[in-house]
What we know:
By secondary structure, this protein is mainly α. It has helices at residues 7-34, 38-67, 101-127, 131-164. Helix 2 (38-67) runs antiparallel to helix 4 (131-164) and helix 3 packs antiparallel against helix 4 (131-164). The radius of gyration is 17 Å and the shape is elongated. The two termini are 28 Å apart.
Amino acid sequence: MTAKHGVAEHHASAANHHEQAVRYHREASKHYQIGKDYAHAAHQALVAHGHTLQAIGHGDEARKYYAEHDGSASSKHPEPVSRLPAAALEIAGTTEGELSSAEHHAAAADHHERAARYHDEASRHWDAKDYALAAHDAEAAHGHAQHSVFHGDEAAKHHIEHYGKSGPTAEIS
Protein backbone atom coordinates (compact mmCIF):
# COMPACT_ATOMS: atom_id res chain seq x y z
CA MET A 1 0.00 0.00 0.00
CA THR A 2 1.35 3.37 -0.88
CA ALA A 3 0.34 6.69 0.63
CA LYS A 4 0.26 8.19 -2.86
CA HIS A 5 -3.14 6.62 -3.53
CA GLY A 6 -6.20 8.58 -2.55
CA VAL A 7 -9.20 7.29 -0.66
CA ALA A 8 -11.22 6.54 -3.78
CA GLU A 9 -8.35 4.53 -5.27
CA HIS A 10 -7.97 2.50 -2.08
CA HIS A 11 -11.71 1.78 -2.03
CA ALA A 12 -11.59 0.79 -5.72
CA SER A 13 -8.62 -1.51 -5.12
CA ALA A 14 -10.28 -3.05 -2.07
CA ALA A 15 -13.48 -3.65 -4.03
CA ASN A 16 -11.49 -5.22 -6.87
CA HIS A 17 -9.68 -7.60 -4.52
CA HIS A 18 -12.96 -8.51 -2.82
CA GLU A 19 -14.44 -9.31 -6.24
CA GLN A 20 -11.45 -11.50 -7.06
CA ALA A 21 -11.83 -13.29 -3.73
CA VAL A 22 -15.49 -13.91 -4.55
CA ARG A 23 -14.45 -15.66 -7.75
CA TYR A 24 -11.94 -17.92 -6.04
CA HIS A 25 -14.20 -18.75 -3.08
CA ARG A 26 -17.02 -19.66 -5.49
CA GLU A 27 -14.63 -21.92 -7.41
CA ALA A 28 -13.47 -23.59 -4.20
CA SER A 29 -17.06 -24.06 -3.08
CA LYS A 30 -17.93 -25.62 -6.44
CA HIS A 31 -15.05 -28.10 -6.16
CA TYR A 32 -16.20 -29.17 -2.70
CA GLN A 33 -19.82 -29.45 -3.84
CA ILE A 34 -18.99 -31.81 -6.68
CA GLY A 35 -16.73 -33.80 -4.37
CA LYS A 36 -13.64 -33.78 -6.53
CA ASP A 37 -10.29 -32.09 -6.76
CA TYR A 38 -9.91 -31.00 -3.16
CA ALA A 39 -6.30 -29.99 -3.77
CA HIS A 40 -7.42 -27.53 -6.44
CA ALA A 41 -10.15 -26.25 -4.10
CA ALA A 42 -7.52 -25.63 -1.42
CA HIS A 43 -5.40 -23.77 -3.97
CA GLN A 44 -8.38 -21.61 -4.95
CA ALA A 45 -8.96 -20.88 -1.26
CA LEU A 46 -5.35 -19.83 -0.83
CA VAL A 47 -5.59 -17.40 -3.74
CA ALA A 48 -8.86 -16.05 -2.30
CA HIS A 49 -7.08 -15.51 1.01
CA GLY A 50 -4.34 -13.50 -0.71
CA HIS A 51 -6.96 -11.26 -2.32
CA THR A 52 -8.66 -10.95 1.07
CA LEU A 53 -5.46 -9.68 2.65
CA GLN A 54 -4.96 -7.19 -0.17
CA ALA A 55 -8.56 -5.98 0.16
CA ILE A 56 -8.23 -5.52 3.90
CA GLY A 57 -4.95 -3.64 3.44
CA HIS A 58 -6.49 -1.21 0.96
CA GLY A 59 -9.58 -0.86 3.14
CA ASP A 60 -7.42 -0.04 6.15
CA GLU A 61 -5.54 2.59 4.15
CA ALA A 62 -8.84 4.18 3.09
CA ARG A 63 -10.17 4.11 6.64
CA LYS A 64 -7.13 6.09 7.87
CA TYR A 65 -8.34 9.11 5.90
CA TYR A 66 -11.60 9.31 7.84
CA ALA A 67 -9.88 10.07 11.14
CA GLU A 68 -8.76 13.49 9.85
CA HIS A 69 -12.33 14.30 8.75
CA ASP A 70 -14.00 13.07 11.92
CA GLY A 71 -14.98 16.50 13.21
CA SER A 72 -16.14 17.87 9.85
CA ALA A 73 -18.26 14.89 8.86
CA SER A 74 -21.93 15.39 8.23
CA SER A 75 -24.35 13.58 10.53
CA LYS A 76 -26.63 11.87 8.01
CA HIS A 77 -25.82 8.56 9.61
CA PRO A 78 -25.08 9.22 13.29
CA GLU A 79 -24.42 5.64 14.42
CA PRO A 80 -21.06 4.23 13.37
CA VAL A 81 -20.87 0.59 12.42
CA SER A 82 -18.45 -1.19 14.71
CA ARG A 83 -19.60 -4.78 14.27
CA LEU A 84 -22.07 -6.63 12.12
CA PRO A 85 -24.74 -8.61 13.91
CA ALA A 86 -23.95 -12.25 14.61
CA ALA A 87 -26.72 -13.19 12.17
CA ALA A 88 -24.48 -12.00 9.35
CA LEU A 89 -22.39 -15.12 9.91
CA GLU A 90 -25.29 -17.51 9.76
CA ILE A 91 -26.75 -19.53 6.95
CA ALA A 92 -30.42 -20.22 7.57
CA GLY A 93 -30.94 -23.28 9.74
CA THR A 94 -27.29 -23.95 10.55
CA THR A 95 -24.69 -22.94 13.06
CA GLU A 96 -21.10 -22.09 12.22
CA GLY A 97 -19.88 -25.51 13.39
CA GLU A 98 -22.25 -27.33 11.05
CA LEU A 99 -21.10 -25.72 7.81
CA SER A 100 -19.15 -27.71 5.26
CA SER A 101 -16.13 -26.37 3.39
CA ALA A 102 -18.38 -25.57 0.44
CA GLU A 103 -20.80 -23.63 2.64
CA HIS A 104 -18.00 -21.72 4.36
CA HIS A 105 -16.55 -20.74 0.97
CA ALA A 106 -20.00 -19.67 -0.22
CA ALA A 107 -20.49 -17.58 2.94
CA ALA A 108 -17.04 -16.02 2.50
CA ALA A 109 -17.91 -15.13 -1.10
CA ASP A 110 -21.19 -13.54 0.02
CA HIS A 111 -19.36 -11.38 2.56
CA HIS A 112 -16.78 -10.38 -0.05
CA GLU A 113 -19.59 -9.31 -2.39
CA ARG A 114 -21.09 -7.15 0.35
CA ALA A 115 -17.70 -5.68 1.24
CA ALA A 116 -17.07 -4.76 -2.41
CA ARG A 117 -20.45 -2.99 -2.60
CA TYR A 118 -19.72 -1.07 0.61
CA HIS A 119 -16.32 0.02 -0.72
CA ASP A 120 -17.99 1.26 -3.92
CA GLU A 121 -20.51 3.21 -1.85
CA ALA A 122 -17.80 4.59 0.44
CA SER A 123 -15.91 5.86 -2.58
CA ARG A 124 -19.03 7.60 -3.91
CA HIS A 125 -19.70 9.19 -0.52
CA TRP A 126 -16.08 10.30 -0.25
CA ASP A 127 -16.28 11.97 -3.65
CA ALA A 128 -19.46 13.75 -2.51
CA LYS A 129 -17.59 14.90 0.62
CA ASP A 130 -20.05 13.04 2.83
CA TYR A 131 -17.38 11.70 5.11
CA ALA A 132 -19.71 10.29 7.77
CA LEU A 133 -21.47 8.02 5.28
CA ALA A 134 -18.15 7.13 3.65
CA ALA A 135 -16.69 6.17 7.03
CA HIS A 136 -19.83 4.20 7.87
CA ASP A 137 -19.62 2.23 4.62
CA ALA A 138 -15.87 1.67 5.07
CA GLU A 139 -16.56 0.20 8.53
CA ALA A 140 -19.32 -2.01 7.13
CA ALA A 141 -16.93 -3.22 4.40
CA HIS A 142 -14.34 -3.99 7.06
CA GLY A 143 -16.89 -5.99 9.07
CA HIS A 144 -17.79 -8.07 6.03
CA ALA A 145 -14.10 -8.57 5.27
CA GLN A 146 -13.57 -9.89 8.79
CA HIS A 147 -16.48 -12.29 8.38
CA SER A 148 -15.05 -13.50 5.09
CA VAL A 149 -11.73 -14.19 6.85
CA PHE A 150 -13.59 -16.16 9.51
CA HIS A 151 -15.36 -18.31 6.93
CA GLY A 152 -12.17 -18.83 4.93
CA ASP A 153 -10.36 -19.94 8.08
CA GLU A 154 -13.19 -22.30 9.02
CA ALA A 155 -13.17 -23.79 5.51
CA ALA A 156 -9.43 -24.40 5.84
CA LYS A 157 -9.90 -26.10 9.22
CA HIS A 158 -12.66 -28.27 7.77
CA HIS A 159 -10.44 -29.17 4.82
CA ILE A 160 -7.60 -30.30 7.09
CA GLU A 161 -9.94 -32.27 9.34
CA HIS A 162 -11.65 -34.07 6.47
CA TYR A 163 -9.20 -34.19 3.58
CA GLY A 164 -5.77 -33.12 4.81
CA LYS A 165 -4.63 -36.36 6.33
CA SER A 166 -5.93 -39.00 3.97
CA GLY A 167 -7.48 -37.14 1.05
CA PRO A 168 -6.12 -36.61 -2.43
CA THR A 169 -3.08 -34.39 -2.71
CA ALA A 170 -1.44 -32.65 -5.60
CA GLU A 171 1.74 -30.73 -6.09
CA ILE A 172 1.34 -27.17 -7.17
CA SER A 173 3.97 -26.26 -9.70
